[in-house]
Amino acid sequence: MYLVGIDISKYKHDCFILKETGEVVSNPFSISNNQDGFQSLLTVLNSLDPHEEIRIGFEATSHYSLNLKLFLEKAHHSFMEFNPLLLAKFNKSQTLRRTKTDAIDSISIARWLMTVDYKPYPVGFYHIYSLKSLTRLRDSLVKQRSFYIVKLTNVLDHTFPEFKPFFGNRFSKTALYLLETYGSAQNMAQMNPSSYESLRKISRGKFSMQKFIKLKELATNSVGANNDIFSLQLQSLLALYNQCAKEVERLEEQIISLISDIQPKSMTIPGIGPLSAAVIYAEYGNIQKFNSPSAMLSFAGLEPGYYQSGTSEHTGRMVKHGSSHLRFTLMNLCIPLIQYNIAFAEFYAKKRSEGKPHRVACSHVIKKLIRIIYHLEKENMDFDSSKLR
Question: What is the pLDDT of residue 304?
Fold first, then answer.
């Protein structure tokens, strides 16, 4: 068996090859992150004994390894990717020296492969990677959209502080239309009956005449400042917010289309929508690679810390390693699961009756969810609440 360690970087990759017996096959060498470099690596791999298995490993390094992974898959070579934190701990266990180079890292990766179960990436991983890229980009844009909402609120605190509380401290479609069309309290105070007709159509009749009159009164008596600079800021932020919102909507359409084609078993669980199912599928990838639900919990950083030494023994808070994007999505699923799924609602109520705080009870709900997803994917079956124990 040949063990190939590859240290990934932006412009080059360092490689090292040894046999499972520890015999060095090839000293560390570098390849460029381009077609010529990849072909030179393939030439080296093809020169090895064809009757021996080749295992390739490298650290998870964001997008820098994507092209190499696609090249290896096309060349029919399997590969394994792992958390850099594990390699760092492995290196510390091997030596007390603090010498670090790319060549040394490639040697460490190859030796690390000797100590772990080889779990290669599934064929066709690119589809999973594409979905992961889209869901993470959407998450970034949603945060950016929230940032613009905060900035809009700050400007309104100067120009029309009574506006947002009037709309329940949220920016509805009607509220955004008013800001885009009129912009200031002074302009809203001058609205006429034809203005109300437009508002009624946009709100689908929810914005009543009484609300219209009340808003005009607030605008007339507002303590806000009528300032051209603030007006410019407001229009600029509205444009950025709308652009961001449109991109989020466009991404969501694409994500829903992709996950609908895949139909993961998590989508059969009431309370889990297509966007959340897409994040779970994209972040976990092939669940067959996990040996237990505990491994899935660990991957998301949702397992509690544990310490035991002598007579001292205790558990701690969540370790919060792994995918923060996955962990955030799973924890936010707790409320819809409780609202739309009687099995999870009863389980949550049971944990609360045991005296556990809301957040702790939610963590137990998510642990139960992961156990169910693991079972559904392993058995290739849909969710059935009557079969829960």
Answer: 63
Please say whether the dihedral angle defined by the alpha carbons of residues 31, 34, 40 and 44, taken in this order, is positive or negative: positive
**CB burial class (10 A; 0-12, 13-18, 19+) of residue 137?**
middle
pLDDT band at 116 (very low <50, low <70, confident <90, very high): confident
Whole-angstrom distance, CA of residue 77 vs CA of residue 85: 25
Q: What is the structure's pLDDT at 302?
A: 78
| 5 beta partners | 16, 57
- The larger pLDDT score, comparing residue 66 to residue 219, is at 219
What Cα–Cα distance (Å) separates residue 250 from each residue in 27, 253, 265?
49, 5, 25
Please state, in angstroms and rounded to a whole number, the distance separating the CA atoms of residues 267 and 107.
42
Read off the pTM: 0.74
Residue 134: partners with Cβ closer than 8 Å, 6 or more residues away: 251, 254, 255, 258, 278, 282
**Alpha carbons 161 and 226: distance in angstroms, whole number:** 12
